[in-house]
Amino acid sequence: MSVDLSCDFLGLSFNNPLVLASGIIGTSATLLQRAAENGAGAVTAKSCSLEARAGHANPVAVDWGYGVLNAIGLSNPGAAEEIHMLDEARERLTPLGVPLIASIFGATTQAFGETAAIISRARPHLIEVNISCPNVSDEFGTPFAATCESAAAVTAAVKAATDIPICVKLAPNVPAIGRIAAAVVEAGADAITAINTMPGMVINAEAGKAVLSNRMGGISGPALKPVALRCVAEIARAVKVPIIGTGGVMNGMDAAEMLMAGATAVGVGSAVWYRGVEALAAIRDELSLFMQQQGYQHLSDLRGAALK
Question: Which of 86, 115, 191, 306 to pair with 128, CA 20 to 30 A apart?
Answer without folding.
Answer: 306
